[in-house]
Amino acid sequence: MTRDYPAIKPVALEEDSGYAQPSQAVPERVRIDSPAVDVMTDLTRVTAVIVLPGDTVDEAHRRMIQRGVRLLLVVDQDRRVHGIVTANDVLGEKPVKVAVQRGVPRSDVQVRDIMTPRAMLEVLDLSEVESANVGHVVATLKAAGRQHTLVVDRDAKGRQRVRGVFSATQIARQLGVAIATEAVARTFADIEASLRH
């Protein structure tokens, strides 16, 4: 080194300190003809919430509550996506059915037992999403009968990667639609009724 650099004076870490997290600024209100990307959770701006296939269903539920999400990406140690698990999967009858079939306590049921595997997922390509409107996304979710759908693009090496997530609940919130229940049919009925007025 050609110069002497004085050390930076350290300070104490305060007891109630948190930590910075990426945040995506999404418009609070959108219209049905707003750009679709306005309602997409962009994973280049928001950290994906993940779970391992071998984690328990209870751990997945705790993570959803902690992070305020209803969908987790199921990934392996190399961060490859193996599927998704939703709050409906975790809180519904799937864990109970698996526990009964295997004769184990519900607390032993793992994410891999109830997740939607990658092979069963249909995803949207970001290039299509970028030219779509919110209405297209609502119609897509409704046609699939799902609360969520993933958006993919390509990384610098040309490999497909999950780039974003659409959530019917988030879209309804941004459209200003009150959601009475988490049921898919009701969510879309609420959105459509609100848009007619």
Describe the structure in your own words.
It is a single chain. The chain is of the alpha/beta class. It has one domain: Roll (CBS-domain), CATH 3.10.580.10. The chain is built from eight helices and eight strands. It has helices at residues 57-67, 87-91, 94-102, 111-114, 126-129, 134-144, 168-175, 184-196; strands at 40-42, 50-51, 71-75, 81-86, 116-117, 124-125, 148-154, 160-167. Strand 3 and strand 4 (81-86) form a beta hairpin. Helix 7 runs parallel beside helix 8 (184-196).
List the secondary-structure elements in sequence, H or E. Answer: EEHEEHHHEEHHEEHH
Widest β-sheet, arrangement of strands: 1-8-7-6
Helix-residue proportion: 25-40%
User: How many domains is the backbone divided into?
Assistant: 1
CATH architecture grouping: Roll
Estimate the global geometry from the Cα principal axes.
globular
The total of helices stands at 8
The major β-sheet equals: 4 strands, mixed
Rg (CA only): 20 Å
- The CATH class is Alpha Beta
CATH T-level fold name: CBS-domain
Please tell me the overall pLDDT.
88
Quote the beta fraction: 15-25%
Give the uncertain stretches in residue-range form.
Answer: none
- The structural class is alpha/beta
User: What distance separates the N and C termini?
Assistant: 69 Å
For this structure, what is the CATH homologous superfamily? CBS-domain
Beta strand count: 8
